Amino acid sequence: MLDLGCGDGELLAVFADHGAQALAGVDLSAQQLELARHRPSWPPPTRGSRGAAARRIRDRHRENPAADVTVRATVAGMTTPAEVFLRDYHDRKPEAASELAVAGHIVGDDRTVYEVFADHVGVPVRVLDLGCGDGALLAVLAARGARTQAGIDLSPGHIRRALERPALAGADLRAGRAQELPFADGAFDAVVSFMALMLMVDVEKVVAEAARVLAPGGTFALGVGGPGEGALEVFPKIARPLFAVVPEDRRVPTAGDPRTRTRAGLDELLAPAGFEPVAWHEVLIDVSGPPEQVWQTCCETYYQMDSLDETQLTGLRTAFKVATRDQVTAEGRLPAKARVHVAVTRLRS
Ligand SMILES: C[S@@+](CC[C@H](N)C(=O)[O-])C[C@H]1O[C@@H](n2cnc3c(N)ncnc32)[C@H](O)[C@@H]1O
């Protein structure tokens, strides 16, 4: 028996218990394979734990009926460990991305960051969102008059949420990788990507795909993260040393090309695919509030928080409280601002 995308070997163990012989598995995650090899109950678990394992798998697939489909896509599409992490993370927390983006207000503007971003896109007739999450940005563009909306995201959980938005009832939304777009050449007038390109591996391929599916003269608009202010400047300084010492088997696989975060880096990536130099704008999101609320925002901003154990989390929380104590205002608010850079370019005709 061969299990494609076997993860930590849970399913293989169940089959072994039913008498299957010559078991084999493949998975793109070296971490998962290590876990499979070192199963304390390997060879096969006892009958009792077999029942529990089978129930867990069944329940997971019930919660996420697209999970097995994705596993197949994973193997076919050469998904990386970082992408497997992102897909699973966002499937577990399908509300995480857009809730965070609309948690604060834009400095000097009381609209959401998606509204401000959409100003830079204009009103395309046909728009595609790379790493569309739960469709928050596409819904804004649809409300402004974009007639054809399409999106792609690693997380089937996000795609399901996006499909529930009335504004996206007719949208073409797919679970998949931005490196391999299932859309025709020249199919869109605009391609957008908000806080997603900076997480993608093989970013030259993503840029080449964006150029392929854009019509000549089409717009490519990107939102990428920049350094935060106030508590959002303090937090990474104290959290990063902790992330660096997380044991290998719990570490969050990192991805993303640092060039996607700077204007010069983006120009370097985009020019070979036929894009003009980017126009560069800055948006500040004020997420100030009571210290506990700001702490929660900081936690939700970093995927690596997923890898900390209880002791590390408590230590970080204490260190954060001490480091930001003097910044709390007389009204009990801790100042914090998130920075997003908006880069806009056009495909040369
Ligand atoms: C921080 S979230 C932002 C989501 C959305 N743009 C929003 O503003 O709510 C990043 C998203 O990028 C997606 N993503 C990362 N790499 C991807 C890839 N190679 N192809 C498609 N989606 C990807 C993740 O699954 C995640 O939903």
Automatic annotation (TrEMBL):
Keyword annotations of the record: Methyltransferase, Transferase, Ubiquinone
Which InterPro entries does the record match to this protein? Answer: Methyltransf_11, Methyltransf_25, Methyltransf_Superfamily, SAM-dependent_MTases_sf
From its record, what is one biological process in GO terms?
Answer: methylation
Pfam families cross-referenced by the UniProt entry: Methyltransf_11 (PF08241), Methyltransf_25 (PF13649)
Concerning SUPFAM superfamilies, the annotation shows:
S-adenosyl-L-methionine-dependent methyltransferases (SSF53335)
Using the record's annotation, list all stretches that form the Methyltransferase domain: 2-40
Q: Which GO molecular function annotations are given, in alphabetical order? A: S-adenosylmethionine-dependent methyltransferase activity
Top-level lineage group: Bacteria
* Domain Methyltransferase type span(s) in chain numbering: 128-221
Chain positions covered by the region annotation Disordered: 38-58
PANTHER family from the UniProt entry: METHYLTRANSFERASE
**Can you name this protein?**
Ubiquinone/menaquinone biosynthesis C-methylase UbiE
* Native source species: Amycolatopsis jiangsuensis
